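Weekly sync, protein design subgroup
Attendees: M.S., D.O., the rotation student, P.L. (late)

Item 1: inverse folding check
M.S. brought a backbone from last month's batch and wanted to see whether the design step gives back something sensible before we order anything. D.O. pointed out we never logged the input encoding, so this time it goes straight into the notes. Structure tokens as presented (77 positions):
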């Protein structure tokens, strides 16, 4: 499923927050750049892409972590 939100966090801080949040779910970083973060576990994945608009736009595709992605976006949105 795909989710999106806009945050006032910088792209760097959004990636940092995502790593902190999803690390607790035992997801590990597979790919990371200034505007992209891919985390995986045996249960699924979280793939976050960042673009800049009126704020920092987060686009997250996930399999297996829908509830957690929604919660994360509420926290940073």
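Designed sequence read out in the meeting:
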């Amino acid at each position: 499923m795909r989710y999106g939100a806009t945050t006032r966090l910088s792209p760097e801080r959004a990636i940092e927050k995502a790593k902190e949040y999803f690390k607790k779910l035992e997801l590990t970083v597979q790919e990371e750049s200034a505007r992209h973060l891919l985390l995986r576990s045996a249960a699924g994945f979280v793939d976050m892409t960042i673009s800049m608009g009126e704020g920092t736009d987060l686009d997250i595709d996930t399999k297996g972590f829908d509830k957690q992605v929604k919660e994360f976006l509420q926290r940073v949105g």
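Discussion: The domain at 2-76 is CATH 3.30.310.80 (TATA-Binding Protein). The CA atoms of residues 32 and 38 lie 6 Å apart.
Action: P.L. to compare against the previous round before Friday.
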